[in-house]
Amino acid sequence: MSLRPDLQIIAAHVTRGSRVLDVGCGTGDLMAALRDDAGADARGLEIDRTNVADAVARGLSVIQGDADVDLAGYPDASFDYAILSQTLQTARAPHLVLDELLRIGRRAFVSFPNFAHWRVRLSLLWGGRMPVTRLLPEQWYDTPNIHHVTIDDFRAHLRARAITVEQAWFLSGDKATGSAAANFMAEHAVFLLTRNQDG
Amino acid sequence: MSLASLSDDQRFGLSRRVTLPGPLRLDGGASLSPVEVAYETYGTLDGQAVNAILVCHALTGDHHLASPHPRTGKLGWWQRMVGPGKPIDTDRFFVVCANVLGSCMGSSGPASINPATGRAWGMAFPVITIRDMVRAQALLLDHLGIARLAAVVGGSMGGMQALSWAATYPTRVAAAVVIASTARHTAQNIAFHEVGRQAVMADPNWREGDYYDGDAPTRGLAVARMAAHITYLSEAGLTEKFGRRLQARESKSFGFDADFQVESYLRHQGLTFTDRFDANSYLYITRAMDYYDLAEEHGGRLANAFAPATRFCLVSFDTDWLYPTAESRAIVQALNAAGAPASFVELSSPYGHDAFLLDSPELDRIVSGFLRA
User: Fold this and answer.
1) Cross-strand partners of B154
2) How many CA atoms lie within 13 A of B38 on its CB side?
3) CATH (domain of A110)
């Protein structure tokens, strides 16, 4: 099974044998890859019951729950990595979810679609309509993406919260783009984060 | 003679019963000796004895898990879940189901003979707990040569036993499946049980539990069952099945016959229950459930009850108001805090608590996948 590009990046950078919590794990594609290829002890949290049933049926440890409320029960630093892929923009309080990720995981992977990608900008500028793109396929009224965020928004937020970026990847389709023009050129981004020791 | 008993080991097969010497020390301070356990096994125990699954039954259940009842001919109570190629696959697993301590289906309980007097125990039988039931099952597994379970599986009170197994014998349980269950009985749970017990005790035939030589307190037990049965269903389920429809009549009788279908149904449920269940056993087992509080047994913190060595799978049903989803969620939170690998799903069903016994392809898929992992 081929993983989504952002998940491929995450899978390639998780240290072997790590303990991993995948928040918003869907049917568990990344978890299965981490378990099978990286010997990870992978656990998942997923809001959709059918996705959870699929994941459990393939032998994964997945809990049906909501990232906005159900992360509180996990102890501090109980995972090497907490992963939030394409889920940040669906949270009611994404900043608090991010805090929880960095509390539970020693490191956090966060990936999200970039709302400042040029195609999104053009769509708004010329069409005057909320953008419907490959990564943001829903209409304005039924989108789960309730907190659209750009790469520069996210960078500013990390600075304000004194969160350290260990590494970042920017993707257009499945191709890497540079960091400097990422806010314009990248369709989506993957960040590897840690909380500063004194943060 | 059944096919399974063709196996040369008389410990394995259908409708088995063993008298274990004990003594079994009970939470209440008493001890029981000997201990009788009625049970059935399915499938084949592998050479290393590592493929055993223990299935725990609910309040009024028995050990006829996946075989027809020898007397009534009714199908096993979880025949749709257990068998060759089923989610609990007897081609792959050796499955054991034992009648719980305190019951009246063959294991030691108040209707058994008290060796000290030669008469039925009645209320002289010691009060037992869910953990005592689990301890009796552990004695049975010792007898069967099973040191460690591949899984323990149960719904409702069976789920309480599964949790208690994991908490009491963490090194003997690799995985636990807990369906429509809870880590403790709430005030509401206890309240419903107390109504049932008082109905039994208010029946003049009950005679302080000493009725085995005469008429049993069937009226009281029937009322207890009627009240309990309501808690196993959902309002939507009752409405769908009965609504306000009248029973075999065109109009209300302006009397106290069973005018409504739901009344007739409950009366039938109550009456048929008294044919198969002992009133004193009902008192003892409901008491065991009311005493059950896993956190209390572990310093008030539920997470302390669990070791990270056991994998857990919890399933709740959205219309179950007896053991609602919030109870399963509390267990999941504790498992997360304990670092135990846990899965949890809330399934949708219109049928309330009873949903765990009914056809549910999603439940099958989850149980099957979890056990194969």
Assistant:
1) B56, B178
2) 19
3) 3.40.50.150
Phi and psi angles of residue B179, each rounded to the nearest 5 degrees, phi first: -115, 130
Q: What average pLDDT does this structure show over B259-285? A: 97
Domains of chain B: 3-185+294-372 (3.40.50.1820), 189-287 (1.10.1740.110)
A138, part of any domain:
no
Tokens of B360: 């549910």
What is the amino acid identity at position A75? Answer: P
ipTM of the complex: 0.91
Task: Chain B: give the shortest CA distance to residue A151, in Å.
Answer: 32
In a domain, residue A186? The reply is yes
Read off the pLDDT of residues B146-188 as tens digits, 9 standing for 90 and up.
Answer: 999 999 999 999 999 999 999 999 999 999 999 999 999 999 9
Q: Among residues B142, B175, B177, which one has the least CA distance to residue B158?
A: B177
Token duo for residue A174: 């499945």
pTM, 2 dp: 0.95
In a domain, A169, yes or no: yes
Instruction: Show the low-confidence residues of chain A (pLDDT under 70).
Output: 1, 197-199
What's the rounded Cα separation, in Å, for the pair A129 and A152?
22
- In this structure, is residue A132 part of a structural domain? no
Residues of B in contact with A49 (CB under 8 A): 345-348
Please give the interface size between A and B, counted as residue pairs whose CB atoms are below 8 Å apart.
Answer: 64
Residues of chain A found within 8 Å of residue B343, distances taken between Cβ atoms: 52, 55-56, 60-63
- For chain A, the domain total comes to 1
For B202-249, the pLDDT digits (tens) are 999 999 999 999 999 999 999 999 999 999 999 999 999 999 999 999
